[in-house]
Amino acid sequence: MDSLKPPTNPRYKVVRADHPEELEKCMAIRKEVFIDEQGYDIRIETNDDDAQCTHFLLILDSGEPVGTVRVLNSNGQLGRFAILVPYRGMGLGRPLIEAVHDHVRSVGGKEVWCQSQASTEDGGVDATGFYRRCGYVNQGEAFMKEGTLHQNMVFTLA
Ligand SMILES: CC(C)(COP(=O)(O)OP(=O)(O)OC[C@H]1O[C@@H](n2cnc3c(N)ncnc32)[C@H](O)[C@@H]1OP(=O)(O)O)[C@@H](O)C(=O)NCCC(=O)NCCS
């Protein structure tokens, strides 16, 4: 039914997920994307690093939370970047990554980096094209992690 399709240009806000109920929404999106969709083990997906991270949540004007990302406070490592399937390719990843960049810049960081999944083989995904479109460049050679190829990528903050 057409009325159930997501809007092509959704209106949204990005919030810093400091409150437990916002964090729960981040975790629900991560579960749907990384565990249910990509098949990651829950012990890999959720780890102690979450307590050391700043989390962001993208919420549509309708109130639906559809995207999340986190950044490790100690070293500017971005991760657990997830947009729900029906909302991908609409430009919603960009404002989330920009929220991370603004945050790291505001605390004096000089760069943001990530370990991007880098191959569709073995059930993995290749997100390197997304990060490249957002200004990230490769750092070093690709490597295997948790059974899939990964590539370190870095963005230099102006
Ligand atoms: C990766 C992900 C977060 C991107 O989010 P998104 O909302 O679809 O991305 P956007 O629509 O904001 O895209 C921004 C730009 O990147 C491009 N892009 C997005 N995904 C891409 C891909 N896989 N390969 C190449 N380019 C891509 C878009 O075309 C767009 O380019 P443009 O600005 O020139 O039009 C999303 O696909 C996702 O949640 N994937 C599953 C989880 C995952 O694998 N996360 C990364 C783990 S390392």
From TrEMBL:
The keyword Transit peptide does not apply. Keywords: Transferase. This is N-acetyltransferase domain-containing protein. The keyword Transferase applies. One of its GO terms (molecular function) is N-acetyltransferase activity. It comes from Kwoniella newhampshirensis. It holds the Pfam family Acetyltransf_10. It comes from the Eukaryota. Residues 13-158 form the N-acetyltransferase domain. CDD domains: NAT_SF (cd04301).
